[in-house]
Write a structure and sequence with these properties.
alpha/beta; Rossmann fold; 5-stranded mixed β-sheet; two-stranded antiparallel sheet; 8 helices; globular
Length: about 220
């Protein structure tokens, strides 16, 4: 992996959605879609969706924000930066930019890999499942918005992005697909999502919520 360090980019995105997209596009340049994979968390996943639709490349979405122009309305004004210190100012025009960047429906589900945590304390994972039907999906039982146990899922993410991790990792991933319930003890449910699978997950979540009503990115800003 160390020999591919120059293949990775993780820029600090500006607060303006339009500026964030322009920065990402300047980094992508003329990279061929087949050689390009995007990984985004929360608002970063929202941006990754727009970019993936624009470029026709792969995208890994970690607890994606699906309607940030609505959910971020309560954060207008000066807000702290969670990483690195300092503050940003969220303006009404930023929400309007987010609304303009919404993707009504993804066009090629096979190009997306969704990781959604049922324990996300910021966003409802069921909304994510509805927004990304028929994509490869890992539903984490528990965890949180930042997916603090992301290391457990890194191999699957890299393999989806086309990184060769060797025969052992490939065999392990194949075993997981063959037996989606194999990791239930660790809270992992991995599957290729279909509309029926999404309905099943939503139904299961609704039952869990009814039983416990008190149950409750790295966001790119």
């Amino acid at each position: 992996m160390l020999d591919r360090v120059n293949d990775w980019r993780c820029p600090q995105l500006p607060v303006s959605p339009y500026e964030a997209i322009r920065l990402a596009q300047s980094i992508i340049g003329d990279v061929a879609p087949a050689s390009l994979s995007l990984i985004g968390s929360s608002l970063g996943a929202f941006y990754a969706t727009w970019l993936a639709e624009h470029y026709g490349c792969r995208a890994v979405l970690l607890n994606p924000a699906t309607a940030p122009d609505e959910t971020l309305d309560q954060y207008l004004g000066e807000q702290p930066l969670w990483h690195g210190g300092g503050t940003i100012v969220v303006k009404r025009r930023h929400l309007e930019e987010l609304k303009a960047l919404r993707v009504p429906r993804i066009t090629s589900p096979e190009r997306y890999y969704l990781i959604a945590a049922t324990g996300d304390e910021v966003l409802d994972y069921r909304t994510m499942l509805r927004a990304y039907p028929d994509v490869a999906t890992t539903v984490i039982q528990g965890s949180n918005h930042s997916i603090s146990d992301f290391d457990d899922y890194l191999d699957g993410v890299l393999q989806f992005c086309g990184v060769d991790l060797g025969p052992a990792a490939t065999e392990a991933a194949a075993d997981a697909k063959a037996d989606p319930a194999a990791d239930t003890a660790t809270g992992k449910v991995t599957r290729t999502a279909t509309n029926e699978a999404t309905k099943e997950a939503t139904s299961t979540a609704s039952s869990a919520t009814a039983q416990n009503r008190h149950a409750t990115s790295t966001s790119s800003r």
